[in-house]
Specification:
This protein has one domain. It is built from one helix and five strands.
Length: 77
């Protein structure tokens, strides 16, 4: 689903780090070796159909690569 993040991400939490991430080998193969973290947070997003929603987002992050593969986990409204 295509969307844009239109607010800051609030309530950011780390869900898992390195060995705790099921997809860590794939991330290392695609982006490179780093200390990967899976994170979650809440933000306002704009969907492709033009509607705005608050949503819980999940993504992978590493210091040298930034935020990668952001996905919508739940729409909150």
């Amino acid at each position: 689903m295509q969307f844009d993040i239109i607010s800051d991400i609030d309530d950011v939490e780390t869900i898992a780090t390195n060995a705790g991430i099921r997809e860590v080998e794939r991330l290392r193969k695609i982006y490179g070796k780093a200390r990967w973290r899976k994170k979650k947070g809440i933000a306002t997003i704009l969907l492709a159909d033009g509607t705005m929603h608050r949503a819980e987002l999940h993504w992978y992050e590493a210091t040298s690569f930034g935020r990668k593969e952001v996905k919508i986990k739940y729409l909150l409204d």
